[in-house]
Amino acid sequence: MENSKNFESSVNRFENMLKTNEIFFFDVQEFEKIIHYYIDSGETNLAKKALKLANNQHPFNTELALLKSELLIFEGNFDKALFILNSYEKIEPNNHEVFIQKATILSKKSKHKLAINYLQKSLNFSEDPYEIWTLLGMEYMKINDFNNAKRYFKLCINNDINDYQSFYNLLYCYDQLKEYENSVNLLNNILEQNPYNEIAWFELGKQYLKLNKNKEAIAALDFAIISEEKFVGAYIEKGKILEKMGKLSEAIENFEISLQFEDPSSFIYSKIGHCYQKLKNFEIAGKFYKKSITLDPSNLDAWNKIIDFYIDINRLKKAIFYLESFLKIDCDNLESWEKIGNLYLKVNFYSLAKSALEKAIKLGSLNRKTWTNYIDSLIFLKRWKAAYELAEEAKKHFPLDNSIDYRIAGCYLKMGKYFKAKNYFKIFNEKNNKAPNSIKKIFPEFSYVLKKK
């Protein structure tokens, strides 16, 4: 506590000095703390001012050179920083901080293996290896060497059981290695020392879920809630597991409890709506889906949920209404233009379907159904030539799709080009291809022509 007060006093004195233009004296350790404070805060101008004053007051202190190189690294001026570090290394070849800063520069240049080499060197000269273990773990993670990374994060946690950053990094390594049992053992060891650690219980529940142990996962999450009654994440995770198990009413209860302890959530409203949809309580489901998009109109997943909901219950015009609303927010969403174009076609809004599907193709759609539905919208509008030209273009993208050939043949018939249509029918008969029922609905005359052939 005393050190903290002294530190705050040093920063306050320095800032008062800047305001009053007076010159106060600081020892090197005070300057070091002040400069690090401003570097960590991103206030490089103040860090530079402090460094300049430090050099004026302590012109022969070599430690300040390391502060200058650190500031240069922060600003991305690696060449100047390296020059200072190389010069300093000649004076103090065993200074672990030099190796750490060189490793930082190499890491920022994505030379992670070289950075690891320098960090390993720094271990030989450091009395407190804790920071270096953390950095080594991070470097190994960056090259996806999770086995070595986990070794160093374990050392960090053994040194400080409350090092949550290393704790999460170690869990991440175990996840990447699919060593879920090791994650469980780690978490149980932490819980032996602190049985009311709600974070550890929460993470334990997630690990059990990965092992398909739903009951154990729920039990762990219940302990997380016992440890911290307002642990919103635990209620949400428990709700998701209960939904997966088909216990929908219990899932809804947990989702609703989570809403008591934090501001309303678009995600949670959507989850509740999905549960009610599964319970076939469509009226309430629709209300929660609507709440979800009203609360956060930028939530793409919520829009997809409400649109798909109305499609699933065959209320297509309602789905179209929400698609039209969403496209006012995101007018270049390819998937939504495809979806609304297909729905327009289903409800016989052919002009709207044509415009929507044309937009989807301009946005780069290579979805076969989008192209064939666009052709069909033109056919239903009796724009035979445009439909034929589009079908020829579609054939370039989908050369093996016979349904496009049928559409081309149908357009030839409608345009009175019987000889060209006849060639297609001849090929169909030779390959014993039968027109799909969907094609016969578009061109009823196919039944007669093919039968005659």
Oligomer: single chain
Percentage of residues in strands: under 5%
How does the major sheet shape up?
none
Helix/strand order: HHHHHHHHHHHHHHHHHHHHHHHHHHH
Q: What is the averaged pLDDT score? A: 89
Main attributes of the structure:
elongated, 78% helix, 27 helices, mainly alpha, 453 residues, disordered N terminus, single chain, 0% strand
Describe this structure in words.
The chain has 453 residues and is mostly helical. Helix content is 78%, strand content 0%. The protein has 27 helices and no strands. Helix 16 runs antiparallel to helix 17 and helix 21 runs antiparallel to helix 22. The longest helix is centred in the first third of the chain and has 19 residues. It is elongated and about 100 Å long.
List the helices and strands and how they pair.
Layout: H1 2-20, H2 28-41, H3 44-57, H4 63-75, H5 78-91, H6 96-108, H7 112-123, H8 130-142, H9 146-159, H10 164-176, H11 180-193, H12 198-210, H13 214-227, H14 232-244, H15 248-260, H16 266-278, H17 282-295, H18 300-312, H19 316-329, H20 334-346, H21 350-362, H22 368-380, H23 384-397, H24 402-414, H25 418-430, H26 437-442, H27 445-452
Helix pairs in contact: 1-2, 2-3, 2-4, 3-4, 4-5, 4-6, 5-6, 6-7, 7-8, 8-9, 9-10, 11-12, 12-13, 12-14, 13-14, 14-15, 15-16, 16-17, 16-18, 17-18, 18-19, 19-20, 20-21, 20-22, 21-22, 22-23, 22-24, 23-24, 24-25
Task: Summarize the entry for a quick read.
It contains 27 helices and no strands. With 453 residues, the chain is mostly helical. α12 packs antiparallel against α13.
